[in-house]
């Protein structure tokens, strides 16, 4: 089994039809590939078996989470090189990203397939890492299934999230005010994002705000403290709710803020003057989005405003071919779905809203994610202890890959301001409202 790295490099280049852009170090300590490039470390032959039994993204993800695969060197550079190769191949072949491994079934590559089998060792499928969500049953986006999905993502320990997010405890895109101040702190940028939303909603003292997917309570705290509103925050995470209530009590705002473990479909005490939904709508799902938009419309008083802050993907020529990435679905956001911003705007309008402003801020999310990754890496040992090494590896890969996706315009994030404009047509939006910049 000498020179496993050289044999793997040759195999990869034969299958991909192009030189491998990263270096490989195999379990036998052999190395191969371009000098000075990031190193893909294959710690165990088990990683190859994972790929053979689950070709493509899921097999790679399982190897990464289990620690069978690692990157030595600049993680962003390595992911960018590999993603560029895979995206280019997908674009030119019109095939899924697993096509490279499935290509081993072609007659002309049978020798390569036999070589890979020999390198992989015993043909036994490895057990998936414990951090993986097992296959789910039943219809998508029921109240119960949504709560289970949210719990998987958010109920991994408030102390872990505090290490990653920092004192703001805001798990959504921050907002850097100017290009001239790229060194502003994450805390400043998150505060500025919350204040931007408050200004877009035109919050005033005494108004009633609903924050859908309130997380650890940062939005309702800022709105109550700085704008004098009464606020209700809802989440499906018990751990988030407990943390948020403690923060609110310590701030002396328990008489103005209520935190509920509640689904947006269960709210019955409307109307609200304003609604914020920040990084929550990605969990709603394509089949439920019209219901989500209609529910929020019904919860607002006439003239009330909605600020919907949501990640978007690029549109597809055939939208029916859209599938959530296996890694994201199994390890990060179970049942989460992304939609193009145009479809989001259309469904808000179909629910009755008048859409008044759309602001794309994807570059801001790339900056945010890079800071979260830096926080995680700085506190790596403690983060792994608070959750598990596998869970920490999930978050590192997910956040770093997402930062690159925002930078390369593969995904975006948008703030959509919409109004429940009354029959009179008086929206309450000033003629030159866009002064919140």
Give an overview in words.
The structure is a single chain. Helices cover 44% and strands 15% of the residues. With 437 residues, it is an alpha/beta fold. The strands form two sheets. It has a seven-stranded mixed β-sheet. Strands 2-1-3-4 form a four-stranded mixed β-sheet.
Which tags fit this structure?
about 425 residues; alpha/beta; elongated; four-stranded mixed sheet
Short note summarizing the structure:
This protein has 437 residues and is an alpha/beta fold. It has 17 helices and eleven strands.
SSE string, helices as H and strands as E: HEEEHHEHHHHHHEHEHEEHEHHEHHHE
How far is the N terminus from the C terminus? Answer: 61 Å
Strand order in the sheet with the most strands: 7-6-5-8-9-11-10
Number of strands: 11
DSSP summary: helix tally? 17
Set down the secondary structure blueprint:
Layout: H1 4-16, E1 23-25, E2 31-32, E3 39-42, H2 46-53, H3 57-66, E4 69-72, H4 75-93, H5 99-102, H6 110-120, H7 143-154, H8 158-165, H9 186-200, E5 208-212, H10 218-227, E6 230-235, H11 238-250, E7 257-261, E8 272-278, H12 289-299, E9 300-313, H13 326-332, H14 341-350, E10 354-360, H15 362-378, H16 380-386, H17 389-407, E11 411-419
Parallel strand pairs: 1-3, 5-6, 5-8, 6-7, 8-9
Antiparallel strand pairs: 1-2, 3-4, 9-11, 10-11
Helix pairs in contact: 1-6, 2-3, 2-6, 3-17, 9-10, 12-14, 15-17, 16-17
